[in-house]
Design brief:
By secondary structure, the chain is mostly helical. The chain is about 70% helix and about 5% strand. A hairpin with a 2-residue loop joins strand 1 and strand 2 (about 25). Helix 2 packs antiparallel against helix 3.
Length: about 120
């Protein structure tokens, strides 16, 4: 199931979980936050360790690890947010189309739209 559809279905006010709050905002409710930071942390640690094993220079390895963390976090965050926004936009279009289909069902307008090819009969 798409993440946008899950977020639309999971809007239960009773099921409020306490998450990590930074600057007054619950980061567990921000889409893509967890995934992008886990990818960033794991890649930063991995590349930092590999660079330390190759060069034996701890300060250089720290810089490489932190840089890798920052770059990989930003890349995965951007890609995930783009995909999430695209899914949300598509879900809104689908929702509007279904509302129109329900609104015009069984009317003369529905027959006119089907003749034009705007609405497809099921």
């Amino acid at each position: 199931m798409d993440t946008v559809v899950k977020s639309m279905l999971d809007e239960d006010p009773e099921d409020e979980k306490k998450g990590l709050v930074i600057f007054g905002r619950d980061v567990s409710k921000i889409p893509c936050f967890r995934e992008s930071f886990l990818y960033g942390i794991s890649s930063g640690v991995g590349v930092g360790l590999i660079s330390f094993l190759k060069t034996s220079k701890p300060l250089l390895s720290q810089h490489i690890g932190v840089g890798t963390f920052a770059i990989s976090t930003l890349i995965t965050w951007s890609y995930c947010r783009y995909q999430w926004s695209k899914q949300k936009f598509d879900a809104q279009l689908l929702q509007e189309a279904l509302k129109d289909k329900i609104r015009y069902e069984g009317s003369v307008v529905e027959k006119e739209l089907e003749n034009k090819g705007v609405l497809k009969s099921a």
